[in-house]
């Protein structure tokens, strides 16, 4: 744990008692702060009390004495409208921050030069975070990984000169971190997402830009217009990443033919043949991780060894099993069309399990890739809308549930007579119509695939 010593003796309001909120309360208390914590959800309040945390209704608190409101990242700061605690804090002139800001203040106080890699982007940030941490660990470094990828940042060990923090940040977290300044800041890409929370794409992009604007070294993917513009504004201590064939701008690191090449054209890293890094998008992810690793002193030999041993992340183009020639891939993390695009680009002869709670725009943006799909198996609430989109373009079977879709797709792939069929769960949708989250959805698919009989009995 990282005790929040920079708040010692101060009175802090905290709203949001989920996992990161509870970790933040413990950190603040360990650092000597006086914490008044609340959550609108009674169950969350009860769980906090069970852990010995005092819960106080912030509606009835005296806001004049608070040094800060620590807001959970899932709580609206601006859109669709500010949470009621935000209104009270602003009326009292109380700064509104998040747990990442507390970490940044601790780093500035304890070890200002401590290695700190901060990673964001609409897609790919979890893979890049995990890969960066893996490369460093494989080379023997003391690595702490957390943030949006799972472990609350204040649950990690404190910043230190010989310890590297590799942290994934969402736009919500960046918005609550006014003093964000990392050693290496990585911005992978930007496509429309979370606009219900940020209002416009321009505002969303501006929030993401803060991560690289304050970094000692900015690593920026330039294959979309928003990131290319951001890279144009950050002209010093900057590395641009460009996937050949996916944009118009050249990059300092060019990703092509399974390799990452430097400005002189020399191969920096070889990615082809790493099963956990399939697809051109993972070339960009790997290039960003390699850039961070080089900045932190890893040799090319150490990087090559780390890449070969990277196991990948669950639910992100995760190869599960082969049954005969058929490969089963779990891409449950693909909750929007842009994420699913990466999976469709990585394969052909795809038996595509798709659907759930649809995002704005549905799957129409994927139309240029429909020729890669042999058959689509529709699940969830989006079935009617997706059937209409696919009509006349892709053969469709309405399956309703993931169980029916997996069995149907496996049977069809086996009898297709093609050399390398792929049964791909890449829903392009949120999971909430049938599953609590994408992890549960992906775990269920993994179990279903594990239970399938061998080729001769399918």
TrEMBL record:
Keywords tagged on the record: ATP-binding, Cell cycle, Cell division, Cell shape, Cell wall biogenesis/degradation, Cytoplasm, Ligase, Nucleotide-binding, Peptidoglycan synthesis
Main location: cytoplasm
GO molecular function annotation: UDP-N-acetylmuramoylalanine-D-glutamate ligase activity
InterPro entries, A to Z: Folylpolyglutamate_synth_CS, Mur-like_cat_sf, Mur_ligase_C, Mur_ligase_C_dom_sf, Mur_ligase_cen, MurD, NAD(P)-bd_dom_sf
Domain Mur ligase central: 119-293
Record localization: Cytoplasm
Top EC category: ligase
Enzyme Commission number(s): 6.3.2.9
Pathway noted in the entry: Cell wall biogenesis; peptidoglycan biosynthesis
Function of the molecule: Cell wall formation. Catalyzes the addition of glutamate to the nucleotide precursor UDP-N-acetylmuramoyl-L-alanine (UMA).
Family per record: Belongs to the MurCDEF family.
Protein name (Swiss-Prot/TrEMBL): UDP-N-acetylmuramoylalanine--D-glutamate ligase
Species for this entry: Methylorubrum rhodesianum
């Amino acid at each position: 744990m990282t005790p929040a010593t920079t708040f010692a003796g101060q009175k802090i309001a905290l709203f949001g008692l989920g996992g990161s909120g509870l970790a933040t309360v413990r950190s603040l208390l360990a650092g000597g702060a006086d914490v008044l914590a609340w959550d609108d959800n009674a169950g969350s309040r009860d769980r906090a009390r069970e852990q010995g945390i005092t819960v106080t209704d912030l509606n009835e608190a005296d806001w004049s004495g608070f040094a800060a409101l620590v807001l959970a990242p899932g709580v609206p700061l601006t859109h669709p409208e500010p949470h009621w605690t935000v209104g009270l804090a602003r009326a009292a002139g109380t700064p509104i921050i998040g747990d990442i800001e507390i970490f940044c203040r601790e780093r500035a106080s304890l070890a200002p030069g401590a290695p700190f890699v901060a990673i964001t982007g609409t897609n790919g940030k979890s893979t890049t975070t995990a890969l960066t941490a893996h490369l460093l660990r494989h080379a023997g470094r003391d690595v702490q990984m957390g943030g949006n990828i799972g472990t609350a940042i204040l649950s990690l060990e404190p910043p230190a000169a010989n310890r590297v923090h590799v942290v994934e940040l969402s736009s919500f977290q960046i918005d609550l971190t006014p003093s964000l300044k990392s050693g290496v800041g990585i911005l992978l890409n930007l496509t429309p997402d979370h606009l219900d929370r940020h209002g416009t794409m321009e505002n969303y992009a501006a929030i993401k830009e803060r991560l690289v604007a304050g970094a000692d070294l900015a690593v920026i993917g330039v294959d979309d217009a928003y990131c290319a513009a951001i890279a144009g504004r950050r002209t010093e201590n900057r590395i641009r990443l460009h996937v050949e064939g996916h944009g118009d701008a050249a990059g300092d690191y060019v990703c092509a033919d399974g390799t990452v090449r430097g400005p002189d054209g020399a191969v920096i890293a070889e990615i082809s043949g790493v099963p956990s890094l399939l697809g051109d998008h993972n070339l960009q992810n790997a290039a960003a991780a390699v850039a961070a690793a080089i900045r932190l002193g890893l040799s090319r030999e150490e990087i090559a060894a780390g890449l070969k041993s990277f196991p990948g992340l669950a639910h992100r183009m995760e190869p599960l099993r082969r049954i005969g020639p058929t490969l089963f891939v779990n891409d449950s993390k693909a909750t929007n069309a842009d994420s699913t695009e990466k999976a469709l680009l990585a394969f052909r002869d795809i038996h595509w399990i798709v659907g759930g709670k649809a995002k704005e725009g549905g799957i129409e943006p994927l139309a240029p890739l429909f020729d890669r799909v042999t058959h689509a198996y529709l699940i969830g609430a989006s079935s009617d809308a997706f059937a209409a989109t696919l009509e006349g373009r892709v053969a469709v079977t309405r399956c309703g549930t993931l169980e029916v879709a997996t069995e149907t797709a496996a049977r069809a792939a086996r009898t297709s007579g093609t050399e390398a069929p792929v049964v791909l769960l890449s829903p392009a949708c949120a999971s909430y119509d049938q599953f609590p989250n994408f992890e549960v959805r992906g775990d269920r698919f993994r179990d279903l695939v594990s239970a399938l009989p061998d080729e001769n009995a399918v």
